[in-house]
Amino acid sequence: MKAARLVAYNQRLRLEEVAEPEITGPHDVIVKIGGAGVCHTDLHLIQGVWAETLGVDLPYTLGHENAGWVHAVGAAVTTVQVGDPVIVHPVMSCGTCLACRRGEDMHCENLVFPGLTVDGGFAEYLKTNERALIKLPPGVDPADVAPYADAGITAYRAVRKVAPLARPGTTAVVVGVGGLGHIAVQLLRELGNATIIAVDTHEGRLGMALELGAAHAVRAGEKAVSSVRSLTGGRGADIVIDFVGSDVTHRQGVEMLRKGGTYSIVGYGGQLSVPSLAMINNEFTIVGNLVGNYSELWELMQLHAQGKVKLHTSRYALDEVNAVLERLEHGQVNGRAVLVPA
Q1: What Enzyme Commission number(s) does the record list for this chain (predicted)?
Q2: How far apart are CA 185 and CA 32, in angstroms?
Q3: In sequence order, what are the residues at sequence separation of 6 or more whose Cβ sits closer than 8 angstroms to the Cβ of residue 233?
Q4: 195-200/171-175 β-pairing
Q5: CA-CA distances (angstroms) from residue 292 to 106, 147, 150, 210?
Q6: Residues in Cβ contact with 223 at an 8 Å cutoff, skipping those fewer than 6 apart
Q7: What is the pTM for the complete model shown?
Q8: Whether the Cβ atoms of residue 146 and residue 120 lie closer than 8 Å to each other
Q9: Pairing of strands 313-317, 171-175
């Protein structure tokens, strides 16, 4: 089968012919890929940002936002059968460790992460396990929902944490209305009652945010903080969710907060620095967010099925993977890019 492989850091992915994955365990499932989302994490993997943390030997196949059809199953698989359309939770969890028993799949002590630690879905077929699969409703095209598998549930997890704080009369700021941020705007609209302010550098994304439920759109830059404070009567925002995570957005995100506000971080790459006196005097809360768990993906798919959350996607052939990654790196992807094998 054809696969897009990371063979060396800071180099383009290489399209290669590799062997199809095989069933080796009773709970294994092989998925025929219908769509694989392209994520900023893929850029970070190529750049070697995760190299020391993951300790993975190259080469391997990227792609951790996957959906498709069940192609083959292990002997003990009972919840899906060949031909079922499915979305794949990105983590293959064991189900027996304490984290799994608590329902926090992403903290599994025996975690396997296709696309990060083993071969992922930038290919024609993907090997995963039964625990990772959610069947799609009839008529749902896997390519239309694949990015929910990471971008969607990461945004869902972040919004779900702050939703109890998004009461009527409060303000929530979404910094970065790209692949994750445009989902977060919709989730804040559905799960909370705050007035939503979208902040981005791109006019098209700001326009999309207004269409999806944001009340105000603010152009990112040095005036972003003053604009948010002006829109909040000088008090500052109750909630800021940062999907960019640069040094600039970290600084500005904290400066946008009112006293007692919550700064929620999803994007990464920068360095957050807040004086302890400012933390204490303002009683700020700072929250980190990893990818959502299986239950959160199931809940998000219910919202999608009800038409309450929609993905803005664009499709590309697997052969176009490097061009897509370049577009993503230069901020030229509006919403989420999805690779569709031929």
Answers
A1: 1.1.1.1
A2: 31
A3: none
A4: parallel
A5: 7, 13, 8, 25
A6: none
A7: 0.93
A8: no
A9: unpaired
Phi then psi for residue 11, to 5 deg, are -130, 160
Q: CA–CA separation, 100 vs 90, rounded Å?
A: 14
| Distance (Å, whole) CA 9 – CA 58 | 9
Cα dist. 333→113, 176, 190, 314 in Å?
25, 13, 25, 8
What tokens does 280 get?
A: 């204490």
Tens-of-pLDDT digits for all 342 residues of the chain?
A: 999 999 999 999 999 999 999 999 999 999 999 999 999 999 999 999 888 888 889 999 999 999 999 999 999 999 999 999 999 999 999 999 999 999 998 999 999 999 999 999 999 999 999 999 999 988 889 999 999 999 999 999 999 999 999 999 999 999 999 989 999 999 999 999 999 999 999 999 999 999 999 999 999 999 999 999 999 999 999 999 999 999 999 999 999 999 999 999 999 989 999 999 999 999 999 999 999 999 999 999 999 999 999 998 999 999 999 999 999 998 888 889 999 997
Look up residue 50 and give its DSSP letter.
T
What are the helix and strand counts (H, E) for the chain? Answer: 12, 16
| H or E stretch covering 322 | helix 321-329
Full DSSP string of 140-205 = --HHHHGGGGTHHHHHHHHHHHHGGG--TT-EEEEE--STTHHHHHHHHHHH--PEEEEEES-HHH
Q: Which residues of 58-86 are buried (b: 16+ CB within 10 A; e: fewer)?
A: eebbbbbbbbbbbbbbeeebeebeeebbb
- Cα 106 from Cα 187, distance rounded (Å): 21
Token output for 253: 């995100």
Residue 341 token pair: 């094998």
- Give the helix/strand (H/E) hosting 321: helix 321-329
- The dihedrals phi and psi of 181, each to the nearest 5 degrees, come to -60, -35
Q: Which tokens sit at 107?
A: 């903290």
